[in-house]
């Protein structure tokens, strides 16, 4: 082994170790503004997600009576430190702190992927990040994707009791619910089942909600299994992006559901306020105390992101005693 090769090997190992411990090397991620620096050699393509950082590693609890067990749930964020309007870096660290605290409370894994060096817009990085998380956690049952511009507000609410257990799913999944609103003629006939058997519940692989504009991919749950791996792999196919089939990952998901009945058969809808309450919206969408989270989608339109984030983050910190 040459000296040059040994040196390169040492440098690579050092970079990997530094990256792995970023989540633990600061008392608070709030100090990390903007996003932590990542060597541009670490991410070379949209398939290369070697910058995954485990921000909370769950304890293995085989006797956990919950279904799924707590260590079988992964919270995921992939971001360049900004939100969809190109801002958000000022509260990036607080977002990470919030999710670490929630993951620790319930013994969930929390993975962060820095996509600042990926050659695609961050919204298109969701799907490669989900696939990489499936690879990293092959025994996980569910992955929860949550956008950066959201705060988990109800620390006591477990994902199993709220949504992911079979009992909770049976209670929460919407029946005969259109996937698309009246303004969208993509597939006006397409609705969720009128009833869910046990087998139907096991077949559900993607749980998402709609706002007044249709499907919103700011918060959703993906089951970890071979079928959903294929589903997400199709969703991530860059040909759709290059051919401009859809302008973003959210509209592409709608396109796939509308045009591929087999894919649609694995998608379930829940009321928006269960997993994706908004800060400013119609009452049916608006956050109220007790909701799982608050999502600041569209706050940039009125240039209110900083003020509303501060209001609710300070409320969360007070309630959680952070």
TrEMBL record:
Highest taxon above the source species: Eukaryota
GO cellular component: Golgi membrane
A GO BP annotation: protein N-linked glycosylation
Entry GO MF terms: glycosyltransferase activity
Keywords, in A-Z order: Glycosyltransferase, Transferase
InterPro entries recorded: Glyco_trans_34 (IPR008630), Nucleotide-diphossugar_trans (IPR029044)
Homology family: Belongs to the glycosyltransferase 34 family.
Protein known as: Alpha-1,2-galactosyltransferase gmh3
